[in-house]
Amino acid sequence: MKKLVKEIESLKKEKDAVILAHYYVPDEIQEIADYIGDSYYLSELATKVPQNTIVFCGVSFMGESAKILNPQKTVLLPEPTADCPMAHMAEAEHIRKLREETEDLAVVCYINSSAKLKAVSDVCVTSSNALKIVAALPNKNILFIPDEHLGRYIASLLPEKNFIFNPGYCHVHASIQKENLIQLMWEKKAAKVLVHPECPMEIIELGDYVGSTSGIIEYATNSNAKEFILCTETGVTHELLRRNPNKIFHSVEVKQICPDMKKITLEKVHHTLKTGENEVLIHEDLRQQTYKPLERMLELAK
Ligand code: 13P
Ligand code: SF4
Questions:
Q1: In Å, what is the CA distance from 100 to each residue of 93, 97, 107, 151, 288?
Q2: First and final C-alpha spacing in the chain
Q3: pTM for this prediction
Q4: Half-sphere exposure of 196 (CA within 13 A, CB side)
Q5: Given 3.40.50.10800, 2.60.40.10, 3.40.50.720, 3.40.1440.10, which CATH number is that of 176-251?
Q6: Candidates 261, 262, 263, 264: which one to mutate for ligand 2, based on the most atoms within 8 Å of Cβ?
Q7: Distance from C-alpha of 122 to C-alpha of 139, rounded to nearest angstrom
Q8: ipTM of this predicted structure
Q9: Closest ligand to 169 CA?
Q10: pLDDT tens digits, residue range 43-56?
């Protein structure tokens, strides 16, 4: 393992590469990453890093977004089959039809989406900037794709807008059961409940804090509380414990795990760096269509 890490380090220098990782990837990947963060942080950072090659340790929409924003860079995915199922849970045709039928409509696309869906959208959002961006849109009607739960949460905070939802969901966050959360809250009375907005509303309503993975980590780090219940993927525990070794973090379910994020291994990072295999390639027409909503997100999130 040490040998592999050393080889990754020297390959990084040789290939002028930087490693970006999401908080849900395995601990050993977070440890070798140059930067770890939530989806917004990583997509913005991808536009600023000086290296010519970005190794994106996350699911494919993350690497795809980095490539769309930086066509001149080489973006490598250690495991191209690591894909977010929710990214495909909407129909481009249906969106086009709704756009024709609905006046004063903005199509707001969660960044957890395929390039095909981004291409038919007006603006992208992440969990950390969705509220700010949707609030700033001049449109009365908002079609929020693909995540229904994040859409409903944002809608609950913006009653002046009229939302149309799409039945997409994250299987990891949707698997958290309200009864199990209530039971755990009863057992750990002093614990603060930290919720990712991909959870259903009945879980969100029980949260002391609702926000992105970075937001959850910041909140727990700055809180005086010593114990927390996590309603998100348990990969965040690595950074939470690194920053807060004396605090305790519980998950609600035995398996709050994203199997796709866990497909990233050191061997695969080494392989993609060494061979250049699994490069993200996007047809220029599609890239231009998807660039606009991502660019608009970066602009409106400032
Ligand atoms: P964040 O942007 O909060 O890191 O969320 C990404 C994600 O995939 C959550 O499931
Ligand atoms: Fe997709 Fe859910 Fe995995 Fe995030 S945790 S990448 S939303 S399946």
A1: 11, 5, 12, 21, 22
A2: 40
A3: 0.97
A4: 30
A5: 3.40.50.10800
A6: 261
A7: 11
A8: 0.98
A9: 2
A10: 999 999 999 999 99
